[in-house]
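Hi R.,

Quick one: here's the UDP-N-acetylglucosamine 1-carboxyvinyltransferase sequence you asked about.
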Amino acid sequence: MLLDTPITIFGGSHLSGEFKAQPSKNAALPIIVASLLSKEPVVLHGIPRLADIYTILELMTGLGTKYRWLGPNTLELHTPELTSTVAPYALVSKMRASFILMGSLLSRAGHAEVSMPGGCAFGQRPVDQHIKAFRAMGAEVDEEGGNFIATRTDTFNGSYVFEILTVGGTQNAILAAVLGEGTVILDNASIDTDVVDMVRFLNSLGAQIEGVGTNTIVIHGVKELRGGEYTVIPDRIEASTMLIAAVATRSQLTVTNVIPGHLRAVTSKLVEMGAHILELDHNTLSIDARHGELRPVNLTTSEFPGFPTDVQPQMSALLATVPGTSIVMDKVYPERLTHVVELRRMGANIEVPEHTQVIQGKKLHGAPVRAADIRAGAALVVAAMAAEGKSVIDGVRFLNRGYERLTERLQAVGVHIEQNQQLVAAAMD
Ligand SMILES: CC(=O)N[C@H]1[C@@H](OP(=O)(O)OP(=O)(O)OC[C@H]2O[C@@H](n3ccc(=O)[nH]c3=O)[C@H](O)[C@@H]2O)O[C@H](CO)[C@@H](O)[C@@H]1O
Ligand SMILES: C=C(OP(=O)(O)O)C(=O)O
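And here's the predicted structure, written out as tokens:
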């Protein structure tokens, strides 16, 4: 059970030992959705046990998928037949990734009715590029009562040039074109790690997708996909969060289960700040921020391989503790700022002229705070670890969406963190 009870963090601990990053939430979700394209069983290793994963499994169960856990992070999915092509509001509104069910349903059944998506609420998150790509390949798409209804009347063919780089839009369009007889070309496609991992998974089942990891992706439709087994990549956002936490607490930490190449934008900023990072082997990093002064830095988020927007709030929290002036701009989601007002409760000095955070770093103090989305929650956890005194963080359901057994795993590396035991016991009843 995932508990939505507040967590208490006593600041001032140092992290130590080894932290094993979880498998990637944002890679696992589209791969689970992509499994819908095969009638055969699919076994996926590296599925984190998170609220978002349970949400997508609930959605897929409603479409005819049967699943069972074969191990702590191993999932078998089987969709011999679709029993519905409707993804309802109650579940789709919980998270963004559910919208790419539209591509899978269009591919497998030629019809999809999917509610407008939800997800973290940090400004506008339109889906116009998804819809334009579907239409460009020949789908009919209507909007009715908060739902998109898409139909394939003929084989999908054609091309689309994305007007902006979009992870979900690229995934949705690829999924729609996998089963069929035509060829679809996507230009200005996202090269994000989560797109690449989904394409590798699909190709391992027999899909014919060329150009993975480049801005031009060509999908040759195939009649069917076979079953198979696949391992999802590690979570670069969780690993980044922990590297940042190590710096915020001036600690030494080893983070395992990482792909260092996926983390470069973050690690190079941390090195610029004065942290020492060593690549111990191809999947282990060691970070040491125990000695010397940390320097403020400026950063701007952009699409992969740039600095990830999903790490911006955590990095802003760290910079709020580093003396000097840092400037942070989120070009992907300029309004991703829900952490700011909460960090101010902890004493942070952050001004936000025109969506740019101007951060004057200083020692923070503990306070009661509330997470309003996943990474804002992670930012508050980072700030609370570095602050003096006790912080109580509410809105833990958002952390549960993105971080597996966070309290327990943070305790294991030395963080003084608790979830109220009385409330925990009551929630278990
Ligand atoms: C479940 C999941 O994997 N979510 C991630 C995914 O979200 P998601 O796939 O929704 O993000 P996108 O890459 O699509 O969004 C990038 C930018 O494009 C804009 N846009 C997107 C689609 C569209 O049709 N029109 C449009 O204008 C968005 O508002 C945003 O400004 O990538 C984001 C950017 O790395 C991450 O923050 C999210 O954590
Ligand atoms: C923003 C995120 O998820 P979603 O796109 O589902 O809101 C996230 O994982 O940080």
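The mean pLDDT is 95.

Cheers,
M.
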